[in-house]
Write a structure and sequence with these properties.
The chain is an alpha/beta fold and 267 residues long. The protein is 42% helix and 13% strand. It has a 4-stranded parallel sheet with strand order 1-6-5-2. Bound molecules: zinc ion (2 copies). The site of one zinc ion has 8 residues, from helix 2.
Length: 267
Protein backbone atom coordinates (compact mmCIF):
# COMPACT_ATOMS: atom_id res chain seq x y z
CA UNK A 1 0.00 0.00 0.00
CA UNK A 2 1.27 3.47 -0.78
CA UNK A 3 2.35 5.08 2.55
CA UNK A 4 0.43 8.28 1.81
CA UNK A 5 -2.73 6.40 1.01
CA UNK A 6 -2.86 4.95 4.53
CA UNK A 7 -2.55 8.35 6.21
CA UNK A 8 -5.13 9.83 3.87
CA UNK A 9 -7.54 7.01 4.78
CA UNK A 10 -6.84 7.45 8.51
CA UNK A 11 -7.34 11.20 8.27
CA UNK A 12 -10.54 10.54 6.32
CA UNK A 13 -11.81 8.27 9.10
CA UNK A 14 -10.99 10.87 11.74
CA UNK A 15 -12.79 13.57 9.80
CA UNK A 16 -15.68 11.17 9.29
CA UNK A 17 -15.95 10.42 13.01
CA UNK A 18 -15.86 14.15 13.88
CA UNK A 19 -18.44 14.89 11.19
CA UNK A 20 -20.50 11.95 12.49
CA UNK A 21 -20.52 13.50 15.96
CA UNK A 22 -21.30 16.97 14.73
CA UNK A 23 -25.10 16.74 14.60
CA UNK A 24 -25.30 15.54 18.20
CA UNK A 25 -22.71 18.10 19.36
CA UNK A 26 -24.51 20.86 17.48
CA UNK A 27 -27.88 19.70 18.82
CA UNK A 28 -26.51 19.72 22.39
CA UNK A 29 -25.04 23.18 21.94
CA UNK A 30 -28.29 24.52 20.50
CA UNK A 31 -30.31 22.85 23.28
CA UNK A 32 -28.07 24.22 26.05
CA UNK A 33 -28.12 27.71 24.54
CA UNK A 34 -31.91 27.58 24.27
CA UNK A 35 -32.18 26.46 27.90
CA UNK A 36 -30.11 29.48 28.94
CA UNK A 37 -32.16 31.90 26.85
CA UNK A 38 -35.53 30.19 27.34
CA UNK A 39 -35.35 28.22 30.60
CA UNK A 40 -38.16 25.64 31.06
CA UNK A 41 -41.18 27.35 32.57
CA UNK A 42 -44.24 26.02 34.36
CA UNK A 43 -47.11 25.71 31.86
CA UNK A 44 -49.45 26.88 34.63
CA UNK A 45 -47.82 29.92 36.29
CA UNK A 46 -44.78 30.56 34.03
CA UNK A 47 -42.40 30.14 37.00
CA UNK A 48 -38.93 29.03 35.85
CA UNK A 49 -38.45 25.37 36.68
CA UNK A 50 -35.35 24.01 38.39
CA UNK A 51 -34.37 21.29 35.95
CA UNK A 52 -35.28 20.20 32.48
CA UNK A 53 -36.51 16.91 33.94
CA UNK A 54 -39.74 18.65 34.94
CA UNK A 55 -40.75 20.60 31.84
CA UNK A 56 -44.49 20.63 32.57
CA UNK A 57 -45.77 22.17 35.77
CA UNK A 58 -44.28 23.31 39.05
CA UNK A 59 -45.32 21.17 42.05
CA UNK A 60 -47.99 23.72 43.12
CA UNK A 61 -49.64 23.81 39.71
CA UNK A 62 -49.30 20.06 39.24
CA UNK A 63 -51.19 19.39 42.45
CA UNK A 64 -53.94 21.79 41.27
CA UNK A 65 -54.59 19.80 38.07
CA UNK A 66 -57.76 17.71 37.89
CA UNK A 67 -56.10 14.60 36.49
CA UNK A 68 -58.29 11.59 35.82
CA UNK A 69 -57.38 8.51 37.80
CA UNK A 70 -59.07 5.19 38.52
CA UNK A 71 -61.84 4.28 38.99
CA UNK A 72 -63.12 5.22 35.53
CA UNK A 73 -65.29 3.66 32.85
CA UNK A 74 -63.07 1.07 31.07
CA UNK A 75 -64.54 2.06 27.70
CA UNK A 76 -64.86 5.86 27.58
CA UNK A 77 -62.62 6.72 30.54
CA UNK A 78 -65.07 8.97 32.38
CA UNK A 79 -64.10 9.02 36.06
CA UNK A 80 -66.54 7.59 38.58
CA UNK A 81 -67.23 9.78 41.57
CA UNK A 82 -67.85 6.95 44.03
CA UNK A 83 -65.18 4.43 44.89
CA UNK A 84 -66.12 1.34 42.88
CA UNK A 85 -64.26 -1.91 43.12
CA UNK A 86 -65.88 -3.82 40.25
CA UNK A 87 -65.18 -2.79 36.69
CA UNK A 88 -68.34 -1.73 34.88
CA UNK A 89 -69.39 0.51 31.99
CA UNK A 90 -70.86 3.97 32.56
CA UNK A 91 -74.46 4.77 31.59
CA UNK A 92 -73.46 6.38 28.28
CA UNK A 93 -71.40 3.35 27.22
CA UNK A 94 -74.18 0.93 28.29
CA UNK A 95 -76.54 3.03 26.15
CA UNK A 96 -74.21 2.74 23.14
CA UNK A 97 -73.61 6.49 22.85
CA UNK A 98 -70.07 6.21 21.45
CA UNK A 99 -68.74 4.73 18.22
CA UNK A 100 -65.07 4.53 19.27
CA UNK A 101 -63.45 1.38 20.63
CA UNK A 102 -62.04 3.13 23.66
CA UNK A 103 -61.27 6.64 24.88
CA UNK A 104 -59.00 8.21 27.43
CA UNK A 105 -58.39 11.76 28.61
CA UNK A 106 -55.63 13.03 30.84
CA UNK A 107 -57.75 15.39 32.90
CA UNK A 108 -61.15 16.93 33.55
CA UNK A 109 -61.96 20.00 31.44
CA UNK A 110 -61.96 22.48 34.30
CA UNK A 111 -59.62 24.63 36.38
CA UNK A 112 -56.01 24.91 35.32
CA UNK A 113 -56.18 22.30 32.52
CA UNK A 114 -59.03 24.22 30.89
CA UNK A 115 -57.10 27.47 31.28
CA UNK A 116 -53.92 26.02 29.75
CA UNK A 117 -55.88 24.54 26.80
CA UNK A 118 -57.52 27.94 26.22
CA UNK A 119 -54.16 29.71 26.22
CA UNK A 120 -52.83 27.10 23.78
CA UNK A 121 -55.86 27.22 21.48
CA UNK A 122 -57.05 30.82 21.59
CA UNK A 123 -54.15 32.73 23.18
CA UNK A 124 -51.58 31.83 20.54
CA UNK A 125 -49.34 30.10 23.13
CA UNK A 126 -48.46 27.26 20.75
CA UNK A 127 -45.31 26.45 22.75
CA UNK A 128 -47.70 24.72 25.18
CA UNK A 129 -47.90 21.96 22.57
CA UNK A 130 -44.86 20.27 24.07
CA UNK A 131 -46.00 20.03 27.72
CA UNK A 132 -49.54 19.13 26.63
CA UNK A 133 -48.26 16.40 24.28
CA UNK A 134 -46.11 15.03 27.09
CA UNK A 135 -49.19 14.81 29.30
CA UNK A 136 -50.70 12.46 26.72
CA UNK A 137 -47.92 9.86 26.92
CA UNK A 138 -49.42 7.96 29.89
CA UNK A 139 -52.96 7.54 28.50
CA UNK A 140 -51.57 6.88 24.99
CA UNK A 141 -49.47 4.03 26.36
CA UNK A 142 -52.49 2.63 28.20
CA UNK A 143 -54.46 2.66 24.93
CA UNK A 144 -51.58 1.07 23.02
CA UNK A 145 -51.44 -1.81 25.50
CA UNK A 146 -55.08 -2.59 24.71
CA UNK A 147 -55.25 -1.72 20.99
CA UNK A 148 -53.12 -1.71 17.89
CA UNK A 149 -52.13 1.85 17.04
CA UNK A 150 -50.54 2.27 13.61
CA UNK A 151 -51.15 5.94 13.10
CA UNK A 152 -52.31 9.11 14.87
CA UNK A 153 -55.10 11.07 13.16
CA UNK A 154 -55.81 14.60 14.47
CA UNK A 155 -59.46 15.75 14.37
CA UNK A 156 -59.35 18.09 11.36
CA UNK A 157 -60.45 21.73 11.27
CA UNK A 158 -62.38 23.27 8.40
CA UNK A 159 -59.99 25.30 6.21
CA UNK A 160 -61.84 28.52 7.13
CA UNK A 161 -61.33 27.88 10.86
CA UNK A 162 -57.71 26.93 10.15
CA UNK A 163 -57.26 30.27 8.40
CA UNK A 164 -58.85 32.13 11.34
CA UNK A 165 -56.76 30.39 14.01
CA UNK A 166 -53.61 29.84 12.00
CA UNK A 167 -53.11 26.30 13.26
CA UNK A 168 -54.99 23.16 14.17
CA UNK A 169 -54.45 22.47 17.87
CA UNK A 170 -55.13 18.73 17.35
CA UNK A 171 -52.50 18.55 14.58
CA UNK A 172 -49.90 20.23 16.80
CA UNK A 173 -50.64 17.80 19.64
CA UNK A 174 -50.48 14.87 17.17
CA UNK A 175 -47.11 16.06 15.92
CA UNK A 176 -45.78 16.34 19.48
CA UNK A 177 -47.12 12.97 20.60
CA UNK A 178 -46.11 11.26 17.36
CA UNK A 179 -42.51 12.35 17.76
CA UNK A 180 -42.45 11.43 21.47
CA UNK A 181 -43.81 7.91 20.84
CA UNK A 182 -42.43 7.41 17.32
CA UNK A 183 -45.88 6.86 15.81
CA UNK A 184 -46.57 8.27 12.33
CA UNK A 185 -49.19 11.00 12.03
CA UNK A 186 -51.72 11.03 9.19
CA UNK A 187 -52.72 14.65 8.60
CA UNK A 188 -54.40 14.20 5.25
CA UNK A 189 -56.73 11.16 5.15
CA UNK A 190 -59.52 12.63 7.28
CA UNK A 191 -60.97 15.95 6.10
CA UNK A 192 -63.58 18.34 7.47
CA UNK A 193 -65.73 18.97 4.44
CA UNK A 194 -68.43 21.17 5.89
CA UNK A 195 -68.29 24.33 7.99
CA UNK A 196 -69.88 23.82 11.41
CA UNK A 197 -70.75 26.33 14.08
CA UNK A 198 -68.92 25.95 17.42
CA UNK A 199 -70.44 23.18 19.54
CA UNK A 200 -70.38 25.27 22.72
CA UNK A 201 -73.77 25.60 24.37
CA UNK A 202 -75.47 22.95 22.22
CA UNK A 203 -77.21 19.84 23.57
CA UNK A 204 -76.02 16.35 22.59
CA UNK A 205 -78.68 16.04 19.87
CA UNK A 206 -77.93 19.52 18.52
CA UNK A 207 -74.23 18.71 18.48
CA UNK A 208 -74.87 15.46 16.61
CA UNK A 209 -76.95 17.31 13.99
CA UNK A 210 -74.34 20.09 13.77
CA UNK A 211 -71.45 17.76 12.86
CA UNK A 212 -73.41 15.17 10.83
CA UNK A 213 -71.75 14.73 7.45
CA UNK A 214 -69.01 17.23 8.36
CA UNK A 215 -66.14 14.76 7.82
CA UNK A 216 -64.98 12.60 4.92
CA UNK A 217 -62.08 10.37 4.03
CA UNK A 218 -59.82 11.76 1.35
CA UNK A 219 -58.01 8.50 0.78
CA UNK A 220 -59.22 5.10 1.92
CA UNK A 221 -56.21 3.17 0.60
CA UNK A 222 -53.78 4.85 2.97
CA UNK A 223 -55.71 4.08 6.13
CA UNK A 224 -57.64 0.85 5.41
CA UNK A 225 -57.01 -1.96 7.93
CA UNK A 226 -55.10 0.30 10.32
CA UNK A 227 -55.48 0.95 14.00
CA UNK A 228 -56.07 4.67 14.52
CA UNK A 229 -55.54 6.88 17.53
CA UNK A 230 -57.87 9.84 16.96
CA UNK A 231 -56.53 12.89 18.76
CA UNK A 232 -58.26 16.07 19.92
CA UNK A 233 -57.76 18.65 22.66
CA UNK A 234 -61.13 18.21 24.40
CA UNK A 235 -63.93 15.65 24.42
CA UNK A 236 -67.33 16.99 25.46
CA UNK A 237 -70.36 14.96 24.38
CA UNK A 238 -68.21 12.97 21.93
CA UNK A 239 -70.38 13.80 18.90
CA UNK A 240 -67.46 15.21 16.90
CA UNK A 241 -65.29 12.14 17.43
CA UNK A 242 -68.35 9.88 16.88
CA UNK A 243 -68.67 11.35 13.37
CA UNK A 244 -64.94 10.95 12.70
CA UNK A 245 -64.99 7.34 13.91
CA UNK A 246 -67.97 6.50 11.65
CA UNK A 247 -66.18 7.92 8.61
CA UNK A 248 -62.92 6.13 9.49
CA UNK A 249 -64.66 2.78 10.05
CA UNK A 250 -66.73 3.12 6.86
CA UNK A 251 -63.39 3.56 5.13
CA UNK A 252 -62.15 0.20 6.48
CA UNK A 253 -60.18 1.35 9.52
CA UNK A 254 -59.77 -1.60 11.87
CA UNK A 255 -60.27 0.13 15.19
CA UNK A 256 -60.30 3.68 16.53
CA UNK A 257 -59.30 4.80 19.99
CA UNK A 258 -59.73 8.41 21.07
CA UNK A 259 -57.30 10.43 23.12
CA UNK A 260 -57.84 13.97 24.40
CA UNK A 261 -56.01 16.21 26.83
CA UNK A 262 -59.24 16.78 28.73
CA UNK A 263 -62.88 15.78 28.80
CA UNK A 264 -65.95 17.27 30.37
CA UNK A 265 -67.07 15.42 33.45
CA UNK A 266 -70.75 15.75 34.32
CA UNK A 267 -71.72 16.85 37.79
ZN1 LIG B 1 -46.74 26.66 38.28
ZN1 LIG C 1 -68.19 4.99 29.53
Amino acid sequence: MHPNKRSVTTAGLEIKSVVGRLPSLAARLVRETLLLVFPPMCAGCSRVLDSEESPLFCPDCFSALDLISEPYCPLCGIPFVAEITTSHLCGDCLGGVYTFDRARAKGSYQGLIREVIHRFKYGGQTFLMRPLARMLIGPAKELSRLHRIDTIVPVPLHYKRLRQRGFNQASLLARGLGSLLQIPVDYSSLKRTRWTEPQTGLSRNQRAANVKGAFALKSKAKIRGKGVLLLDDVLTTGETVNQCVRVLKDGGVREVVVLTVARTVAG
